[in-house]
Amino acid sequence: MKNFIWDFDGTLYDTYPMILQAVMKVLQKNEVTADEREVYKMLKEFSSKKVADTYGIDFVSFTQALHGFEAADKREPCPFAGVKEMLAAIQASGARQFIMTHRWGEDTKKMLEKHDLLVYFEEIVGPEMNFARKPDPEAILYLVNKYQMVPEESVMIGDRIMDVLAGNRAGIRSCFFDNEGLLSDVNADFVYHSPQEMTQLLEK
């Protein structure tokens, strides 16, 4: 692989404990009682929109409340162990790296800068660019076209089914980052369980 398009939350950064807690607070605020593990699986298998729709909450209101609870959380999100070494190895090989995320770009940049990781990425595509949300391939196709990527040499990597679907629908390769064993039968070209393993993509 020569072009790596990364998801951010749950793939590069271990942010889901904070995201899940914020989602549960949004549900509580809306007087919804839900099983935490079921909500977590829904986030991973689908999206926060699926959670909002399932419990009859307007998605715009859900998102605003979610961002508020996330901002109030003073814990510092950190990359998974081995991410920096993985990104450095990929960059050293001459491959290019990008991020496509539902997290706002400036927030993503701040977190990467804090851990000296921003230097590894050529571009970050966030919701402020108004592309359709994953699993729609629109944002991936924007990157593929802008950087003239060869589809067979390009891969979308993420921890959710929507990441895999977005890559598949864009006509590039897909990689599922399965560090929890929560989901099965994911239709990805590659499945890896750690950042260290994902450097094997350089040989594909």
From TrEMBL:
InterPro entries named among the record's database cross-references: HAD-like_hydrolase_sf (IPR050155), HAD-like_sf (IPR036412), HAD-SF_hydro_IA (IPR006439), HAD_2 (IPR041492), HAD_sf (IPR023214), PGP-like_dom2 (IPR023198)
Domain of life: Bacteria
Pfam families listed in its UniProt record: HAD_2
Signal sequence annotation: none
PANTHER family, per database record: PHOSPHOGLYCOLATE PHOSPHATASE (PTHR43434:SF25)
Protein name in UniProt: Phosphoglycolate phosphatase
Lineage, uppermost ranks: Bacteria, Bacillati, Bacillota, Bacilli, Lactobacillales
